Amino acid sequence: MKEVIAIIRVNMINKTKDALLAAGVPAFFANEVLGRGKGLGSGLPQDDKGPLEASLRLTENQMETGRLFAKRMVTVVVPDNKTDAVVSTIIAVNQTGNPGDGKVFVLDIDDSLRVRTGECGESAIC
Amino acid sequence: MPLVMVRSIVRPEKADEVLLALMNAGFPGATKLFVAGRGKQCGIKIGDVAYDELAKTMIMTVIPDTDKEVVVKTIVDAARTGDNGNYGDGKIFISSVGEMYTISSGAKESGARGDTL
After folding, report:
1. Which chain A residues in 4-43 lie under 8 Å from chain B, judged by CB atoms?
2. Residue in chain B lying closest to A44 (CA)
3. Pick among 3.30.70.120, 3.40.190.150, 3.30.390.10, 3.90.79.10: CATH of A2-124
4. Min Cα separation A107/chain B (Å)
5. Cα A16–chain centre separation
6. Would B46 be classed as within a structural domain?
7. Is the ipTM of this complex over 0.90?
8. Average pLDDT for consecutive 10-residue bins of chain B (117 residues)?
9. What's the total number of domains in chain B?
């Protein structure tokens, strides 16, 4: 089993839900989080990306810790054979090609247990 | 190069200092979550009122395995209160990350040493 953690844009959550459902993964949970990457919020030098980003950058440079952007964290636990499909679905749905689209992490899960029935392993998440 | 996820649970008022320290150490990427929890002190008792869950902030960051010690030291130095630390300063958990993708490019990150993730 794998845990797929995706940090995505706030307005992409509904599309992601629908796409995961279509990919056969109805179960997931989501958190409201704040985050920054190596892009705008990081305080690192950026390529010139136009006046809006330049003005955002100006404000950020005045902030010590960099700007934290509102994001959604989506967590799905899937069997090994569905991992690649889930990762590519999330990437396909959330990709706009701009910085800030987010990240996807894949972690190992040793075991899972359904509280209602007590069953363990992959049958607990399917 | 293997990647690890560092989840640190710190005092909410220390979160900004930890994020600043991580930025200065060259690790800008981070995610902040508001959580509630308790440790081995089972919360805190002030007078007659017992609080068994305390507000904490979780800072989640994914880094190359080789930068683990630097990051842990950075977080500990920033999050510890007083000279010797106090109960409630928090915990750091580290778990391995199998794969990591950047959505905007669709690329799989390799996590080379010193890579900014």
Report:
1. 6-8, 31, 33-38, 41-43
2. B28
3. 3.30.70.120
4. 5
5. 10
6. yes
7. no
8. 92 93 90 93 89 94 93 96 91 94 89 64
9. 1
